[in-house]
Amino acid sequence: MNIITVPRAMAVWSRRLHREGVTIGLVPTMGALHEGHRALIRKARLSCDALVVSVFVNPRQFGPAEDLTRYPRPFAQDRALCAHEGVDVLFAPSREAMYPPGFQTVVALQELARRWEGTVRPHHFQGVATVVTKLLCLVRPHVVVFGQKDYQQALLVQRLVEDLNLGARVVVHPTVREPDGLALSSRNVYLTTAQRRAAPVLYRALRAGWAAIRSGIRSEAQISRIMHDTVAAEPLAQVDYLALCDARTLEPLRRAAGKVALLGAIRIGKVRLIDNLLVTVPAKKRTGGRIRLGEQRSD
Ligand code: PAF
């Protein structure tokens, strides 16, 4: 496996492969790779000849009070996982290489970036959009794979790629979970034993919302109440938001219909957890009709 740390060298590598007609896949990460990342890597591996994993803890997507300095950086472990999965290039630039003195450009999306995570983390998506654009320009992948756990991020990248004609196919891979439902995340290592026990309450709340829809409830007020009540039963957890929204635009809905997303973010101590479920709801309630608990497949 080739380790590239210099952006210009990454661009040269990708230009050469494009000339040779080789298809390139990219999995962008901030490192601290876990089984969720492994699933993204394996998914990308299936759709390309040469696979790049980027490991870059992007300072521009962290707020001033967030965990940039303590974010886990187990580089040797990440390198071993990538080598084991047959990754061709591990792209691991430094902060100075990605944002040299004089760097001024930002990429910002509008409505989609302002909702949900955007209300709690105002500059987060500008940081994500800027770094993802840079990565896509350097690696020029044919396919780029993101996890559904960060559903708003995945939608935003799909929008960005389309709006700027960046040409990559964006694949969203279903969330990988612990046996008790907790979505895998590099930040789960921050949880104490008691917090870890409490953490699956977010998934339980989303499942309760889904069960409510399945039982015929369509009103957002009722679905939201059921999700909030589930989290309220866990004393360590506090809700940031629990919402029913349109799965494509993330606009809040008053009634569940069509493709909807149940989105949630909670805090357990200082740890923030996010998660989501996608549900396809038939337009009219049909007795015995099936409601699919969807997992986003954009490929
Ligand atoms: O999801 C992440 O790990 C990051 O937001 C990403 C997409 C690698 C951009 O820094």
Task: Explain the overall architecture.
The chain is an alpha/beta fold and 299 residues long. It has 2 domains: 2-173, Rossmann fold; 186-294, Pantoate-beta-alanine ligase, C-terminal domain (Pantoate--beta-alanine Ligase, Chain: A,domain 2). The protein is 36% helix and 21% strand. It is built from 11 helices and 10 strands. Strands 1-4-3-2-5-6 form a 6-stranded parallel sheet, with helices on both faces. A 4-stranded antiparallel sheet has the order 7-8-9-10, with helices on one face. α7 crosses α8 (151-163) and α10 packs antiparallel against α11 (220-232). It starts with a strand and ends in a 5-residue tail after the last strand. The model has no long low-confidence stretch (mean pLDDT 95). The site of pantoate has 10 residues, from β2 and α7.
Number of domains: 2
Mean pLDDT comes to 95
User: Which percent bin holds the helix content?
Assistant: 25-40%
CATH architecture annotation name of the largest domain: 3-Layer(aba) Sandwich
From N to C, what is the helix and strand string? EHEHEHEHHHHEHEHHHEEEE
- CATH topology of the largest domain: the name is Rossmann fold
Low-confidence stretches: none
Question: Which structural class do the helices and strands define?
Answer: alpha/beta
Number of strands: 10
**Apparent shape:** globular
Major sheet details: 6 strands, parallel
Distance, first to last CA: 27 Å
